Amino acid sequence: MTKTMDAECLVIGCGFAGGIIARELAERGGRRVLLLEKRDHIGGNAYDCIDQAGVLIHRYGPHIFHSNSRRVYEYLSRFTAWRPYEHKVVCSVYGKYLPVPFNLNSLDLAFEAEKASRIEGKLTETYGRERKVPILELRRSADPELTELADYVYRNVFLYYTQKQWGTTPEETDPEVTARVPIFISRDDRYFQDRYQGIPAEGYTALFERLLDHPNIELRLKTDALDLLRIDGGRIFFDGKPFSGTVVYTGPADELLGCRFGRLPYRTLDFQFETYPETWFQTYGTVNYTVDEAYTRITEFKYLTGQKLNERTTIVKEFSRAYTGAPGETPYYAVNNPDSASQYEKYSSEASGLPDFYLLGRLAEYKYYNMDAIAEKALLLGDRLIAQGGIRK
Questions:
Q1: Quick one: average pLDDT of 143-153?
Q2: pLDDT tens readout for residues 174-192
Q3: Are residues 228 and 121 in the same domain?
Q4: Is residue 260 part of a domain?
Q5: Which of 9, 249, 331, 334 has a Cα at 20 to 30 A from 264?
Q6: Mean pLDDT throughout 124-134?
Q7: What's the pLDDT at 5?
Q8: Maximum Cα–Cα distance for the chain, whole Å?
């Protein structure tokens, strides 16, 4: 382990972004890395743990690994074996379960047989099989049955769900944004079609334990880096002293600079965990509630993890609301609009002027990333920094 003032690199935040860049700088770059995490655990939002019922849960909602990147898959495979798992999601439309993304199987369930067959033929003839066609494109069709299909999916699968997720009214919901979601002209019920899919066989926390197990990494949990990090006159101070090494920051960009340009808007999630004395609660890993209920979805973890437990199971209900910055809240989703983009640009512009300072990840870059995408970004940043500074033995 390193001593703090011997650290050549500071990495702030211990999710996928921070964990991977810390390992890259420590292992390939040969640098001494101090990794700071505000929470009391590693893994960021991918953290998993055993609850009181003995069920392995994802504390911050379900995380399913999927990727088409061979590099990311092989890199993470150094630290975990994988449980093969292909996620399937349904939405509850007035008690009827339809696969999502909406596909040909969903079509058969939503419409009577003759009409569904006729619409399938039109979709196939117009667009071809295994195509994902945006609802907006279907709405432009001259065929009334295709526009009817688009309207059905828009109203029953996406409209109210989007309103719950983003806190908008029907009048505020932009139909063109929602309509970008596709109809999949396929019988493939999988939520993702990526080449690599699965769940870490021993869980995400175990993956992170191995990822961070390197003699050049010092990890400090329950440490708010912003209590120690100060930016003054374009210079970086850490623990009261000038710091001239590399800093990779994965936390909220606005909080880094004291929210001086105002707090960036996010959506946060409230999780309601419930345990039941039964083997299964529902018939799918995740059920989205698109036309009713206050929550957006229910996930049952044993489908994801493959854990074998009889007569007990744990689910989580997710409720979306505006992030306020209050203690205990977690910002999950950036609210992207012209105003927030302009606001974020002020923060990123100031950070970009700092020497050897890098913003990385969902919060720091104010963008939504899947796990594999941020893993790849961290690897690419590692390539860049190592190339700049050489490899030390």
A1: 95
A2: 665 665 688 999 999 999 9
A3: no
A4: yes
A5: 9
A6: 95
A7: 47
A8: 74
Domain of 250 in residue numbering reads as: 4-42+212-264+336-389
pLDDT in tens, 15-58: 999 999 999 999 999 999 999 999 999 999 999 999 999 999 99
d(CA 273, CA 295): 12
What confidence score (pLDDT) does residue 180 get? 63
- The 3-state secondary structure of the chain reads CCCHHHCCEEEECCCHHHHHHHHHHHHCCCCCEEEECCCCCCCHHHCEEECCCCCEEECCCCCCEEECCHHHHHHHHCCCCEECCCCCEEEEECCEEEEECCEHHHHHHHCCHHHHHHHHHHHHHHHCCCCEEEHHHHHCCCCHHHHHHHHHHHHHHHHHHHHHHHCCCCCCCCHHHHCCCEEECCCCCCCCCCCEEEEECCCHHHHHHHHCCCCCEEEECCCCHHHCEEEECCEEEECCEECCCEEEECCCHHHHCCCCCCCCCEEEEEEEEEEECCCCCCCCCEEEECCCCCCCEEEEHHHHHCCCCCCCEEEEEEEEEECCCCCCCCCCEECCCHHHHHHHHHHHHHHHCCCCEEECCHHHHCCCCCHHHHHHHHHHHHHHHHHHHCCCC
Residue-averaged pLDDT of the chain: 94
Report how many domains make up the chain.
2
Grade residue 325 by pLDDT with cuts at 50, 70 and 90: very high
Comparing CA positions, the residue from 310, 314, 288, 283 lying closest to residue 301 is 314
pLDDT at site 1? 43
